[in-house]
């Protein structure tokens, strides 16, 4: 059994400027997974950088409110929302609130640096 505790996963600034902690990644743990799972935070008043992935991605919102930008579409997202981001879509989130925007990211197949383009 593998249990990853968020508090034990190192936090770093991702290429898109989110504060990220990788929970599960098949390249980093001996797991039979296709996807990767990360915990992300966008501080109050901040935005992630516009970026795109060659793979699909899902955001699941844990707390906070933000504008989700996918290509030319913009919608507000709140806790309990799951957002599908298709491959090659330009995306970013803008936290307009006074609290951190916290979400999970699932990338399938698992995130790889060469699959991401940051504007």
Give a written overview of the molecule:
- This is Cupin domain-containing protein.
- It holds the Pfam family Cupin_2.
- Residues 40-107 form the Cupin type-2 domain.
- The protein is built from no helices and eleven strands.
- By secondary structure, it is mainly beta.
- It has one domain: Jelly Rolls (Sandwich).
- A six-stranded antiparallel beta sheet has the order 1-2-3-10-5-8, with no helix packed on it. A three-stranded antiparallel beta sheet has the order 7-6-9, with no helix packed on it. Strands 4-11 form a two-stranded antiparallel sheet.
- The radius of gyration is 14 Å and the shape is globular.
- It starts with 11 loop residues before the first strand and ends with a strand.
- The mean pLDDT is 96.
Question: What key phrases describe this protein's structure?
Answer:
single chain, 119 residues, mainly beta, Jelly Rolls, six-stranded antiparallel sheet, three-stranded antiparallel sheet, globular, RmlC_Cupin_sf
């Amino acid at each position: 059994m593998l249990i990853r505790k968020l508090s034990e996963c190192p936090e770093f600034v991702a290429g898109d400027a989110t504060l990220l902690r990788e929970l599960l990644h098949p390249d980093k743990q001996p797991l039979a997974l296709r996807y990767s799972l990360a915990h992300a935070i966008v501080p109050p008043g901040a935005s992630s950088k516009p970026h795109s992935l060659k793979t699909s991605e899902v955001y699941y919102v844990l707390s906070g409110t933000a504008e989700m930008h996918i290509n030319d579409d913009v919608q507000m997202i709140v806790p309990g929302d799951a957002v599908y981001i298709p491959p090659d879509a330009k995306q970013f989130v803008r936290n307009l609130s006074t609290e951190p925007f916290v979400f999970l990211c699932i990338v399938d197949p698992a995130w790889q640096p060469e699959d991401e383009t940051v504007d």
